[in-house]
Amino acid sequence: MSDITGLQILSTLAPDGRLTVSLAEQTLPAPTGSQVVLRVEAAPINPSDLGLLLGSADVDHAEYGDGYLVAQMPEASMRAMASRLGEAMSVGNEGAGTVIAAGEAAEAQALLGKRVTCVPGGMYAQYRLVDARACMVLPDDATAEQGASAFVNPMTALGFVETMRAEGHKALVHTAAASNLGQML
Prior knowledge:
Blueprint (H helix, E strand, L loop, with lengths): L3 E10 L4 E11 L6 E8 L4 H7 L9 E3 L2 E5 L2 H6 L7 E3 L4 E8 L3 H4 L5 E4 L8 E5 L4 E2 L6 H4 L4 H15 L13 H5 L1
Antiparallel strand pairs: 1-2, 1-6, 2-5, 3-7, 3-9, 4-5, 7-8, 8-10
C-alpha cells in the first residue's frame, strides 16, 4: 500500500499569544510491522481535547477563515502554556474507525476491515497510524460513535472510584451528573 494523505486538526500557540487552529494536510506512510491505518469515523470532544484545542483563547473575537481560526490567548494563560509555544499540536485523545491498511505482523493483519477504538492522540484527523496492540475491536453491532468514547471517561470514572476506595471514602461528589462521566459514576 502507498502513503495515505488526509486532513488533521492542529493547534499552534505563537509566542505573541495568537492561537491558530487549522486544518492541515498530513501524509501517513504505509504501515509496517504491527501498525495499522485507521480511517477515523468518530472522535468525541473531551474537556482535555478542548484544553489543547482552544485553551482559554478569546474565540468570541477570533478571526475565522477557510479551514482555520486565530484567537488571542490571555496573558495569564500564556505562562501556563509556555512549553507548547510554536508547536503545531495534533488534537483528539480518542476515537474509532475502520482499519484500512495493516503492517505485516499477525496482530495488524487480524484487524484489517474491522471497526476499532483507540486512544493514541491526534484523532481529529481523517486517518491515523496506530499500533495494532493499542486497538480494541468493537462488537459487530457497535457504531464508531458508540465506541469512540471507550477510554477517557471510563478510565476517569474508574480512577475516581478506585481512589475513593483506596482512601477509605464511602462516597464522592461529582457535580456534572448528567454528563457522560457522571452517568458512568
